[in-house]
C-alpha cells in the first residue's frame, strides 16, 4: 500500500510498504478514506525528529471503512464506517475507566516514561504505524474505532479523531465562568475549533493569531481577533476591563513564533545526532515559550490556562513567581478522545453545523501530494489551514 513516511527533518515521502495485517484478535484493519495532517505532525516534521526513524508512517487523524476484523472483535463488522481516535486505548484499565484514555495503562510506553501509545507519533509514543496510508491496523478496535453514520460526508466526522475533542477538552479544562471571556492563542485547526466551541457555549472569545487568513476564518464564526505582538497581554487587558481574560487556551505549543531563545535551542538540537538531541530535550529547555509567557501575563488573577498545544522540553523556564502571585490554575495534556466523542457525535451531525466542521478544510488532495501539502501547512502558504489526504483518491 501507499503510505506517507518520515525520512528526515522536513523530509517526507510517499512509499510503497507492506499492507498491515491482523496481529491480535482485538485488531481491525481499516481502509482509510480521509486522513488529515495535524499541527502535531509538524512537530515530528521539525523539532521531534530525534525521536523519529526513517520510514516511520505518519498520521493520526484517519477514518474509513472496516476491511477485516480479528477473531475477538464483537462491536465491529466488515463494511462499518469508523473514525479512529489518535490515542490507542484499551477501554478497561484504571485510566480508561476514569476517562483518561491518553494515559491508558495497557498501552503506555514504559521505555520512554510516556502515556498511551499514539498512532504515527514517534518512538516517544510507541512508534505505531500511522494513518496517512491506504490501510491502518487498529489495536483494541472494539473500543478504539468510533462507528459513524453512512450518509454524511467524511468532513463531518473526520475531526472527531483528534482536533475537535482536543479543542473541546481544552475549553472544558479552561473552566470559563458564565459571562466570562475566553482567549485562544493560535488559530490553527485546534484553535479554530476551541474558539468556536467557546462561542457555542455562550462565551465572548478573543483569539490571537499572526496569520491573517486564519484570523479571517475565525471572524466568520463570531470571534474577535488580534495579531500576536509584544503588547498582546496589554491589548487583552484593555479589552477586558483591565483585568485580562478569565481563561486562556494555548493552541500553539512548542513552536510559537516570537521566541528567539527557544528557536535557537530547537535549531541547535536539530543538528545533533539523535541520542544527544534526545538527552538535551529530556534534560533541558527546548520549547519556544512566547505564547505561554504571554498567557501568564495576560490571564486575569485567579484565571485558568489550558494547554492544548504540545510542549516537549523538560526544563523550559516558567515565571513561577507570577504564576503563584496571580493564583493561576493550569490544566493540560493530550486529549482523552474517547471521553468526548459520544457527546460530540450529535453536534457534528446537526444539520445546522454549530461548530462549522464544514468550514475548516482548505485543501483536499491525493496521498501523493502529501509532501507538498506538509510544506504549505508548515509555512502557512497557499492559504493552507487544514489539509485532508484522500488515500483512495479525490472524489471531487
Ligand atoms: N493536546 C492534544 O491532544 C493535541 C491534539 C492535537 C493537536 N495538539 C497541538 O495543538 C497545537 C496546534 O495544532 P494545530 O493543528 O492547530 O496546528 P497549527 O500549527 O496549524 O496551529 C498553530 C497556530 O499557532 C499560530 N501561532 C504561532 N505563533 C503564535 C503566537 N506567538 N501567537 C499566536 N499564535 C501563534 C500559528 O500561526 C498557527 O496558526 C500543536 O501544538 C499540536 O501539536 C494537541
Ligand atoms: Zn492531531
Ligand atoms: Zn486503557
UniProtKB/TrEMBL annotation:
Question: Cofactors per UniProt?
Answer: Zn(2+)
**Does this UniProt record's set of keywords contain Amino-acid biosynthesis?**
no
**InterPro entries xrefs:** ADH-like_C, ADH-like_N, ADH_Zn_CS, GroES-like_sf, NAD(P)-bd_dom_sf
UniProt keyword Protein transport, yes or no: no
Key words of the record: Metal-binding, Oxidoreductase, Zinc
| Name of the featured protein | Glutathione-dependent formaldehyde dehydrogenase
| A single GO molecular function term of this UniProt record | zinc ion binding
Which family is annotated? Belongs to the zinc-containing alcohol dehydrogenase family.
Q: Could you tell me which species this protein originates from? A: Arthrobacter pityocampae
Occurrences of domain Alcohol dehydrogenase-like N-terminal (ranges): 25-141
- Domain Alcohol dehydrogenase-like C-terminal, by residue range, is 189-255
Amino acid at each position: 500500500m501507499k503510505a506517507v513516511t518520515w525520512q528526515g527533518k522536513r523530509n517526507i515521502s510517499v512509499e510503497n510498504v507492506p499492507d498491515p495485517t491482523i496481529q491480535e484478535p482485538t485488531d481491525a484493519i481499516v481502509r482509510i478514506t480521509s486522513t488529515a495532517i495535524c499541527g502535531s505532525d509538524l512537530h515530528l516534521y521539525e523539532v521531534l525528529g530525534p525521536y523519529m526513524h526513517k520510514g516511520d508512517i505518519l498520521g493520526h487523524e484517519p477514518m474509513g471503512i472496516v476491511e477485516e476484523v480479528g477473531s475477538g472483535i464483537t462491536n465491529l463488522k466488515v463494511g462499518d464506517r469508523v473514525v479512529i481516535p489518535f490515542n490507542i486505548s484499551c477501554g478497561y484499565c484504571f485510566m480508561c475507566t476514569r476517562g483518561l484514555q491518553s494515559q491508558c495503562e495497557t498501552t503506555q510506553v514504559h521505555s520512554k516514561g510516556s502515556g498511551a501509545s499514539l498512532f504515527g507519533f514517534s518512538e516517544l509514543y510507541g512508534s505505531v504505524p500511522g494513518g496517512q496510508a491506504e490501510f491502518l491496523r487498529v489495536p483494541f478496535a472494539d473500543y478504539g474505532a468510533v462507528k459513524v453514520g453512512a450518509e454524511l460526508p467524511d468532513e463531518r466526522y473526520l475531526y472527531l479523531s483528534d482536533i475537535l475533542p482536543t479543542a473541546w477538552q481544552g475549553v472544558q479544562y479552561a473552566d470559563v465562568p458564565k459571562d466570562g471571556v475566553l482567549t485562544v492563542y493560535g488559530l490553527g485547526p485546534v484553535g479554530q475549533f476551541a474558539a468556536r466551541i467557546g462561542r457555542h457555549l455562550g462565551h465572548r472569545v478573543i483569539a490571537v493569531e499572526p496569520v491573517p487568513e486564519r484570523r479571517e476564518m475565525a471572524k466568520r464564526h463570531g470571534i474577535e481577533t488580534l495579531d500576536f505582538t509584544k503588547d498582546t497581554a496589554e491589548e487583552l487587558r484593555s479589552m477586558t476591563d483591565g483585568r485580562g481574560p478569565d481563561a486562556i487556551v494555548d493552541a500553539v505549543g512548542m513552536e510559537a513564533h516570537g521566541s528567539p531563545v527557544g528557536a535557537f535551542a530547537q535549531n541547535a538540537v536539530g543538528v545533533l545526532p539523535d541520542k544527544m538531541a534526545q538527552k538535551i530535550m529530556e534534560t533541558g529547555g527546548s520549547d519556544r515559550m512566547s505564547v505561554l509567557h504571554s498567557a501568564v501575563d495576560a490571564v486575569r488573577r485567579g484565571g485558568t490556562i489550558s494547554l492544548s498545544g504540545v510542549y516537549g522540553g523538560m526544563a523550559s523556564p516558567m515565571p513561577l513567581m507570577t504564576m503563584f502571585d496571580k493564583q493561576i490554575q493550569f490544566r493540560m495534556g493530550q486529549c482523552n478522545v474517547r471521553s468526548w466523542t459520544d457527546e460530540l457525535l450529535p453536534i457534528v451531525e446537526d444539520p445546522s453545523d454549530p461548530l462549522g466542521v464544514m468550514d475548516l478544510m482548505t485543501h483536499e488532495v491525493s496521498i501523493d501530494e502529501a509532501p507538498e501539502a506538509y510544506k504549505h501547512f508548515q509555512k502557512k502558504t497557499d492559504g493552507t489551514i487544514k489539509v485532508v489526504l484522500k488515500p483512495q483518491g479525490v472524489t471531487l
